[in-house]
Amino acid sequence: MNSIRQRLYVYLTVSLFLVWLVLLVSAIVVSRHFVIQQFDARLKETSGQVRILSREIIDVLQYTRFGGPDDITHELVNPTPMQIYRHGILVIQSRGAPSFPFPAGTGFKDVVIDGEQWRALYEYDSDYDTWVINGQRLSELHEPLYTFVFEIIWPIFVALPVVFLCIYVSVRSGTALFKNVTQEIQSRAHDKLDLIATDTVPLEIKPLIVALNDLLVRLDSALTSERRFTDNAAHELRTPLAALKTEVQVARRGARSEETVEMLDRILVRVKSAAHLVTQLLDLSRVNPNAVESRFHRTNLQHIVIDVLSEMADCALDRNIDLSIGDDGHHFIVGQDGLLSVLVRNLVDNAIKYTPSGGRVSVQVADCDDGVALVVADSGPGISDEVRESIYDPFFRGPKTQVAGSGLGMSIVKRIADLHKATVTLTNLKSSEGFEVRIIF
């Protein structure tokens, strides 16, 4: 049971049940003691009356004066079962009274007669050498005992639903503070590392939030250092790579053998690939929310797409790819022009790379119910479900990919889309072979 709320419900409910059980047992014990006291008081009162009555009866009968037999027993009609012994012989017994055991001492005693429990009071009258025994069945205690216990317990029974409701409301309202903190953290973007406010959090989790804030500070520092290193390294690599590319191109023009030309072409491909990687690393380092959100403004996405396609037209022609754009129009969104250009360039670059020669790549910008949609579709092979799960990971490349690249393109696209609060949808086209990326701003 990992839920604090469930644990509180269980602990409080069990505790309440145990308290209620203790109260019930205590009520039964106290009630039984009280009822027995009342029971004994009634027996005591009845016994006193019987003792006085027995003296009068014995004086009238004058057993010893008339020489009557000592074993004569007289029955009296009395609501309370009783017996009177004189000189150790039963002389008076109420009608229906049981045969109480002969007394071994005075006071109240619990006795069993014919399988029934009785409460009996034994009293001795020394003036007449008389024992007076008065008793009642203990079963007659049950009704007043149950009545008394019920009068004590029923308010608790009535209060139980109210108490359970109070527990439920209290636990729910108390743990709602935890839920608020959780929702605040869950609603954050992955790159938002602002500290969590500790003013309104419960004291019980404040140390956890403080530790989490400390982790966020260290994480922000590490990411800043990483971006700074990537930016510096990319800048340092760009110049020598550009010079190397120029030198290779010059050497290729002066090469005299086909073998040398082929070798220089392979070197040139590698240099271009390295230069492309450096460009993507620079693009990745620029995707910093704290640095670009303040530069967002209303911009025409259609114009950005046209500019990017103009730059990449030669690349499409070299691969014999039909690169097209939808109808011209004005489709405005709020964003940063430079990052949007990087996003479109990476999408189109991927589409051209993975589309076979003679294929087609189409780009379209259109208004939709949810905003403005940017759609890049190609006639390439599409992607598998296995690749789809990891396609946004930096430097990820599919296991069967034969196309040269760094694996940063879709990672950059996703980060820029998230920065613009846009949604990215990847679809393998069913009507024909191909792949589509749809981004809704």
C-alpha Rg (nearest Å): 50 Å
What would the CATH topology of the largest domain be?
Heat Shock Protein 90
What best-fitting shape do the alpha-carbon axes yield?
Answer: rod-shaped
Q: Kindly name the structural category.
A: alpha+beta
Order of helices and strands: HHEEEEEEHHHHEHEEHEEHHEE
Mean pLDDT: 75
Q: Ends: how far apart?
A: 42 Å
Weakly predicted, low-confidence segments = 62-78
From the structure provided, what is the oligomeric state, counting identical versus distinct chains?
A: single chain
What's the total number of strands? 13
The percent range for helix content is 40-55%
The CATH homologous superfamily of the largest domain is named: Histidine kinase-like ATPase, C-terminal domain
Number of domains: 3
Reading off the top of the CATH hierarchy, the class of the largest domain is best stated as Alpha Beta
Strand content: 15-25%
Report the total helices.
10
CATH architecture of the largest domain: 2-Layer Sandwich
InterPro entries: HATPase_C_sf (IPR036890), HATPase_dom (IPR003594), His_kinase_dom (IPR005467), HisK_dim/P_dom (IPR003661), HisK_dim/P_sf (IPR036097), Sig_transdc_His_kin-like_C (IPR004358), TCS_sensor_his_kinase (IPR050428)
Domain Histidine kinase: 232-441
Protein name: histidine kinase
Membrane topology: Multi-pass membrane protein
Describe the structure.
- The structure is a single chain.
- The chain is α+β, with helices and mostly antiparallel strands.
- The chain folds into three domains: 4-145, Beta-Lactamase (2-Layer Sandwich), CATH 3.30.450; 191-286, Helix Hairpins (Orthogonal Bundle); 291-440, Heat Shock Protein 90, CATH 3.30.565.10.
- It is 55% helix and 18% strand.
- The protein has ten helices and 13 strands.
- It has helices at 4-61, 63-66, 142-186, 206-254, 258-286, 289-292, 301-318, 337-354, 385-390, 409-419, and strands at 74-76, 82-86, 89-94, 107-113, 116-125, 130-137, 297-300, 322-325, 332-335, 360-368, 371-378, 423-428, 435-440.
- A six-stranded mixed beta sheet has the order 1-3-2-6-5-4, with helices on one face.
- Strand 5 and strand 6 form a beta hairpin.
- The protein is rod-shaped.
- The two termini are 42 Å apart.
- Mean pLDDT is 75; it is low at 62-78.
